[in-house]
Design brief:
By secondary structure, the protein is of the alpha+beta class. 29% of the residues lie in helices and 24% in strands. It has helices spanning 30-38, 52-57, 74-86, 105-112, 122-129, 131-141, 237-254, 294-304, 367-401, 408-414, and strands at 21-25, 42-47, 60-63, 92-97, 148-149, 159-163, 173-174, 184-188, 193-202, 206-216, 226-231, 257-267, 270-277, 317-324, 329-330, 341-342, 350-351, 356-364. The radius of gyration is 22 Å and the shape is globular.
Amino acid sequence: MPPIDLPKTSSPRRSRPKRGSLLIAATSGRALARAAVEAGYDALVADFFADADTQKLAHACRKMPGAIGRGFQWRSLRPALEALAAQAPSPLHGLVYGSGFEDRPRLLTRISKRWPLLGNDAATVEAIKAPERFFALLNALDIAHPETVTARPRKLAGWVAKRRGGAGGSHVVPGRLQKDATNVYYQALVEGRAVSALFVANGRRARVLGFSEQWTAPAPGKLWRYGGAVRPAFLTEPAEAAMTDAVNRIARACGLKGLGSADFVLAGNRPYLLEINPRPSATLDLFAGAVKPLLALHLEAVRHGKLSWKSLNFEGAVAAGVVYAQRAVIVPRNTKWPLWAADLPKPGERIDKQRPICTVRARARTRADAKRLVRARAASLLAKIENTNEAFEGEQREQEEQPSKHNERHEAAEHQHPGRAVGAGPYR
């Protein structure tokens, strides 16, 4: 039976009266902007992409300057947030952050001195992301996890190296390939399924909202690069209970607040905790459209210590996957993006080989159908972009052979997309 894409609006509901404005800072702020709008807030976004759909969702959006590999810098983040705050069309409640701060919690301290920080504080993030502290705590709480050390093991077979505060899987490499560095730690490789628990916590207890299963999109030198995720994950009752218990114990011990995720590897029926993301995670999209908006749950927990136990009624199965460029491409100016695509690059934007182009999503009756549909859509969209590029390159070759017929469209395209070339700034 072929996958069935169940009807569901891809845009967040906008009918609610505005509850105020929220500053959003993340490497990519589209998912949080969508969650904010769904919860009835005006979104003011600072990120490294300023994607077309982020700009459409947000009341205002600022693209951060500089290379994405350097991450957020206070000298550019501060003026961006101040400019966004000045544009707030409704009372400004504070700032919600996503990925991009795990390895620089001091920025969260600086932010908190200017605006209310609507999430875990800098000390909590620092403790969660310091492997020597986090895994010692897991030992004290008797929570299963892979063997983890900060010193380079004598024998590196069966070990992976991870960057402190890394996200997305691209920073994970086989231990034998890791050069000596002070910002990495080593973890015994446990084979199994990657399962993530989305939760909301109020500083004392946590509620697990759902589980998703992730897959990788390996690339040269990036064997564990994030590829996508599907919910619900297939779990036995004992495995689900063990992961839920682990989330509750670590949330209580660390005083976690708001939305977060716990990443496990499920070896057979035994879960091993890999890390906690103490902020809204990459799987936020999979759980969008609930009876109660997820960001409303986040803000109630952070600001008022409230946890809602009402059913969120997650229907069917949902999958989302990243489309990576197999070679350098230029986004066609006449691209008509389907409703199931997100994180949309701008027309004329150059995207280098192995960089993400966009995200594709699918809703179906079963997790297998949703995953198959996402992969089919990703392949179709990638082929369409590559075919358009090949046709454009053919036109270029023809023009080079006939210089007298040089056209303005080619010339205009050349000026559109220096920003995504290698070494030229943020990558997608």
